[in-house]
Please model this.
Amino acid sequence: MMETIFRFKKFNKTIYASIILIIILLAFSSPILGYEIDVELMNPYQDINWDSINYYKANLHTHTRRSDGFHSPLTVINEYRKNNYDILALTDHNKYTWPWKEYGINYKNTKLIAIDGSEISNTHHLGSYFNDYASNESSENKVLSEIKRRDGIAVFFHPGRYNKKIDWYKYYYKKYDNLVGIEVFNKNDRYSNDRKLWDRLLFELMPDYPVWGFGNDDMHNITTDLGWHFNVFLMKANTRDNIKKAMVNGHFYIYNPKKQNESMNFFIKEVLVENSSIKLSVKGNYKKIEWIAYNTITERSEVFATGNKVDVSDYIYKTNYVRAKVISETGIIYTQPFGIKY
Ligand SMILES: [Zn+2]
Model:
């Protein structure tokens, strides 16, 4: 009897082991057998008609003497005009520097589109746009609710200055659809860990909650701060409505000139997404294109592929998004993330 029971148990174990082995074999052999996993690519640039857009240069984080900046609003605005910017937001700490005509701006004389906003600064610093909220409030929830109530949009600034956990950020991005992005370049890259955090966040939130990356001067001093990183908006016409839509939908990329204030001499001409592949076509000279995502094993931002085309079906077990970096002798373009759904 004892022996029978023992043998029965042994037999059972063998069956379980075999079933598990068959499942494992099936799972790993499916690509060999010709099964393909459906991949859906979420392209932030999908709605862009590349034949009819223009490229607009934007700085969305700027200080004046109204808070801790060195210069008057008029000097700051004129300096950005001189440097061929198309879009500017004055974001004084907890202050609403608006309307610009109060600071001597004649709108008829400028093509520069003015975005109203502030930098909410008693919380994790936050860029607040398209609304008049300016407050010493210290609760992020209250601030983000107030911005939302005013139909404004928000971006977390220089996350590298804080020691917030990833879950802290996740909570706000999931809760507030008007919190559209994160600043991943500040001045001449004061916080290089900002991209690592961005990639980690994207890994946690893509493709359902995209977080757009912004690059800004955080301008206090014209000489040292102006012209290190800017956002290139991809729009048919430069209007406040279009800018707001582009900020919400990720219709822009970041540019980092190698030398301060150097103008851009290469552009993304088109983004083509077909099935599981993304192809960038670039106008002008560039050295290489890297496709970056978060590697969960090394816990770092890593280059997954190079070249102007990537097929994400090669990486689906490794990542749920990918973003591109176009590198030239004169500067670097950073695209928004492409989500991968499978
Ligand atoms: Zn600032």
Summary: The chain has two domains: 2-35, 53-265.
